[in-house]
Amino acid sequence: MKKASFLLTATLLLAACGGEQSAEVEQDTEEVMKQEAIEIDFVAANDDSIPAGTIVKAQGIATPITGTEIGDEFLLTPKVAEGEESYVVSNNSKVEIQDGQEITVYGSYDGKTDSGAPKITATIIE
User: Fold this and answer.
1) Distance, CA of 55 to CA of 58 (rounded, Å)
2) How close are the terminal C-alpha atoms of the chain, in Å?
């Protein structure tokens, strides 16, 4: 019985420590991503000058396509957009977006959608 209690206590302590470390690692990873991200240029994204997998940053107004929750897609239209400049963003962050919300996304440039719009998979949304 003492061994079982000891093992349970040790497991809980290790799990608690692991949770703190994973939160720190996640925060460090986010900071690195923000520092490495390049401001995406719509013209460059549209003419395939940006390689898929590039870490990018984009700012604009969100408009839901499939919904506002995590895992959904939305359009991100830069505030200074000329014409039909919008990115399709897949929300892989922990943040739910709101229609008309001004946001900044950090993530991976994924090339273009079937309709030809530049696509970003966002892992950080502020």
Assistant:
1) 10
2) 49
